[in-house]
Write a structure and sequence with these properties.
about 160 residues; alpha+beta; Arc Repressor Mutant, subunit A; 2 domains; 4-stranded antiparallel beta sheet
């Protein structure tokens, strides 16, 4: 599989402060951000745009409370494919996009080929997905599931 590595931007201490602040609160105004990082608003906005255009900032999202919306189950699935050809790996990766219950998916090394982060309304819905969709997929050989008990840490994706 061809890997497209992102171009690395040269980031200075101010850029890192901007990223740290936005990772903690992506809704603040540019003026507030500029004050927090110690520069004026116009250069701050230019830096943020450079970080967005360079792909360092991929987007802005609201973090939702899954249980408040009726999604009480979080689970992980370790999926092993029957064959690890490039075509099979790509096809399975593409299939995950059609499964709303799968919130994040990683191709991994080791005992499994994929790690799926799943969020579901309840155990029955999750079990139905595992049996009727995941294990029924022609490319899937093994599925190991792990139900979570409680989230104990939830930080931004990058420690900066």
């Amino acid at each position: 599989m061809g890997v497209n590595l992102p171009i690395r931007l040269e980031l200075d201490a101010i850029d890192m402060k901007i990223l740290r602040e936005l990772q903690n609160d992506g809704r603040m105004t540019n003026v507030e951000l500029a004050e927090r990082v110690g520069i004026s608003a116009p250069p701050c906005l230019r830096r943020v745009r450079k970080l967005e255009e360079g792909g360092v900032i991929k987007g802005y999202h609201a973090l939702l409370s899954a249980p408040s919306l009726g999604f009480d189950l979080v689970a992980f699935c370790m999926v092993g494919l029957k064959h690890q050809s490039e075509a099979d790996l790509k096809a399975f990766a593409a299939a995950t996009n059609a499964w709303p219950l799968v919130r994040q998916a990683w191709m991994v090394s080791g005992e499994s080929d994929f790690l799926l982060h799943c969020v579901s309304e309840n155990l029955t819905v999750f079990q139905d997905f595992v049996i009727e969709v995941l294990t029924a997929n022609d490319r899937v050989d093994t599925v190991r599931t792990m139900l979570t008990i409680r989230q104990v840490k939830n930080e931004g994706l990058v420690a900066i």
